[in-house]
Amino acid sequence: MVISFSIHSYRGGTGKSTTTANLAVMLTLYNKKVATVDLDLTSPGLHVIYQVSQSQMKATLNDYIYGKAALEDVVVDLTNQLSLPRGKLYFLGASMKPEEIAKLMREGYSERFFREVAKQLGEVYGVDYVIFDTHPGLNEDTLLAVLSSDVSFMLMRMDKQDITGTYVTAQVLSKFNKTSYVILNMVPPDMANAPELQAEVSKLLGVPVIGVIPFYPEILQHRSRGVFILRHPKHPYTLRIKAVVDFIVNNIK
Q1: CATH number of the domain bearing residue 185
Q2: Nearest-CA neighbor of 9 among 176, 185, 201?
Q3: Distance between CA 87 and CA 28 in Å, rounded?
Q4: Domain that holds residue 14
Q5: Number of domains making up the chain
Q6: C-alpha 44: how far from chain center
Q7: What is the pTM of this model?
Q8: For the segment 106-155, what is each residue's pLDDT rounded down to a tens digit?
Q9: Following DSSP, what letter does each residue of 54-103 receive, concatenated?
Q10: Is 132 within 8 Å of 6 (Cβ atoms)?
Q11: At 131, which helix (H) or strand (E)?
């Protein structure tokens, strides 16, 4: 049975797309079939990290939403392109055309859209996980994606505004009985290694913190040129991503 996740944050700049891409690839290394859906429709970026060219995308999510293309036309199989040794990785991208972005922002989409996409990806491609990379904030479209997913992962930096916004988001999701977890990202190294940090933030937010990822300048220097963990399999960042995936595989059924 397919499980859908949303990767969300209250504010921008938390590293959602980078985290999404690396979590997805790590899941394939556990021999899982994963589909990543770029729902940051105002500023899509997953295709950059995956190094997917516009010519590879026969159609976009925008085309599918408006009935101009079948889902199969949107799905890009990245398994061979990324030389993944096991599992499967699929990518569904959004349009970069300003007029199509504007149209979608005006008209929006329904909750049924997210559930239907996850269902079809499970039935047609046999995926184990569908990961929706959403855009930040608490607007209607993002909440639809988050509430339509089985599980929400909220990325948060250790910044006062981010902490406050994530707390509010967590409270909203709890009203809908949604299962949510927090991943702390870009945490100052001295703070990230404090053994009590995870428990303290979990208590503060009322949501379990399942990962603490320090700030690594190497991630910025990488500049989204490919999936970091594939190029740096022994880097501490890779081990932190692996720890999150261990939790997902062992605890979310």
Answers
A1: 3.40.50.300
A2: 185
A3: 4
A4: 3-251
A5: 1
A6: 12
A7: 0.92
A8: 555 566 778 888 999 999 999 999 999 988 887 777 777 888 899 999 99
A9: GGG-SS-HHHHHTTSS-HHHHEEE-TTTTT-SSSEEEEE-----HHHHHH
A10: yes
A11: strand 129-134
